[in-house]
Every structure is written in C-alpha cells, then in structure tokens.
Amino acid sequence: MKARLLVAAVGVPAILALLCFAPAWATTILFCAVTVLGTWELFHILHIEKRRGALCLTMASSAAVQLVIYFPGYEKTVLVFLPFCLLLFLCWVAYYEREEKFGIEGLAAALFSGAFVPLGLGAMTALRLTSRGNLLVLAPLVATFVGDSGAYFAGRALGKRKMSKRTSPNKTIAGLLGGLLSATLGMVLYGLVLRLFGLYGSLWKLGVVGLLAGAAAQLGDLSFSLLKRHTGAKDYGNLLPGHGGAYDRFDSTSFAAPVTLVLLGLLEVF
After folding, report:
1. Which residues contact residue 182 at a Cβ distance below 8 angstroms, ignoring those fewer than 6 apart?
2. Where are the beta strands (DSSP E) in 78-175?
3. Among 118, 123, 138, which residue's Cα sits nearest to residue 18?
4. Which tens digits make up the pLDDT trace of 133-176?
5. What is the sign of the dihedral through the CA atoms of 193, 196, 199 and 202?
6. What is the secondary structure of 49-97 as a DSSP string?
7. How far is CA 144 from CA 10, 152, 262, in A?
8. Strand 168-172 relative to strand 162-164, pairing
9. Which DSSP helix (H) or strand (E) runs through 262?
C-alpha cells in the first residue's frame, strides 16, 4: 500500500503537469511509451515475447498510429484506420506463415495492441491539440479515475451481486452504478472548475459526456481484464509498484478518451 500511495503521489502530479503545461508533442510521446510498453506486457503474458519480429512490428505500429494523429490530425487517422489495420493484418499473416508458433492469439494481440489501443490513446493527443487542449485533455482522466474511485467505494459499501464472476470477480452491480454516477458528477464538477479558467461549457452536456465516457471506461477495464484472465495473469506488468504495468493504468483511458473526444464535438459542449 505504501508503494502504491508513493507512486500515485509522485506520478499523478507529474502526468498532470506534462499534459497541461508541456507542449502537445509531449502528450504524444507519453502515450507512445505507454503503448510500446503495453505491447511488450501483452506479448509477455501471452508468452510470445520471443517472437521478436512480430513484437517489433507491433511496437512500431503502435507508435506510428499516434504519430499520424499528431501530424495530420485525428479525423484523417480515423479515415485511414481500417486500411491501416488491413495492411498490418497482412504483415502479421505473413509473419504467421513463417512462424506458425506465433498462433492466432498472437495475431489478435498484435492487431489489438498495434492498432486499436494506440488509436484510443491517440485521442488524448487529439484533445491536447484542440483549442484550450491543455484543459480539455484532462476530461477522459476525470471520467476514468473519478469513476473508478466511485466504483471502488460503492462496491465496497453496497456491492453484493457480482457483475462478471469470471472476467472480473471483484466488480459488482453497485460498483458499476456507483462508477457511472461518480463519472457523471465528476465531469460536472470538472466543468465548474473549467469556468475558473474562462472556459464555459454546458454542465448538463458535460454530465452526459461523463456518463458515457465512464461507461466506456468500465468496458475498457473489463476488456483488458478478460485478456489477463485468459492468461492467468494478475497484472500486465510491474512497471509501477502497486499499480501494475502500463496497460493496467491506462486500459480504461484507451476506451474513454475517444468517446470523450467525439462527444465533446457532437454535443458542442463548449
């Protein structure tokens, strides 16, 4: 517990400072590092990290997706996402033909970690590049971490009925509802804080963003947990003492960030 608190006390302010005060390219570098490290973690728990060719290709593609977002923009990246995935898939199929021990799990992991996750986390860069992006980039983190905290305390206090016994046995229906409520209220409070910085947005629309982004965050957590349960791993890694690996910390964010980005635009919140 001490290690967990120490890492949080040092890491959270450092990440917030980097996202809010450093140039936008620093956000891209941060999440490039997260996806590259996360790729190794995923390959490791699947016991295919020795397949160096596939590992390097997947790491390179995870970084490339986010760099494409930084330079031409998120919208153009989405347009080329499916052809890009197809190209990557063909590369991995070619590798599979050479290294049959790579397996279908390896192909799925490569596509997941080399394309899907970096596109999701790339939405953080896209938010940072918007007007007042140094403030808006925190929105997915509010939905994720406030919702996660609310789910934890609601589950501990009221949780009786399990939500997913096999995938995530500690999650309860009460925790799910508590997390959604917390994410909603947290985003409204975030909107009030933004007003102190001269950025005025519709509070009820921010509540909707918080609700849906919070739901996406919980779906992300379940999705990454499913992969861990499949392999029998408790965590993706031990990069952060008490917190696990890179994917353990940013699993929910990879789902919440694109939902937040799209909803802020569609709802014309600001």
Report:
1. 146, 147, 149, 150, 151, 154, 214
2. 162-164, 168-172
3. 138
4. 999 999 999 999 998 888 888 877 776 777 666 666 677 888 88
5. positive
6. TT-HHHHHHHHHHHHHHHHHHHTT-HHHHHHHHHHHHHHHHHHHHHHHH
7. 19, 12, 16
8. antiparallel
9. helix 246-266
Domain ranges of the chain: 2-266
pLDDT digits (tens, 9 = 90+) for 174-229: 888 889 999 999 999 999 999 999 999 999 999 999 999 999 999 998 888 888 87
3-class SS at 164? strand
Give the chain's mean pLDDT: 83
Q: In angstroms, how far apart are the furthest CA atoms of the chain?
A: 58
DSSP character string of 174-242: HHHHHHHHHHHHHHHHHHHHHHHTT----HHHHHHHHHHHHHHHHHHHHHHHHHHHHHT-S-S--SBTT
The one-character DSSP state at 132 is: T
**pTM for the model:** 0.87
Per-residue DSSP letter, 142? I
Nearest residue to 230 (alpha-carbon basis) of 136, 155, 166, 145: 166
28 pLDDT higher than 80: yes
Q: What are the backbone angles phi and psi of residue 243, rounded to the nearest 5°?
A: -120, -15
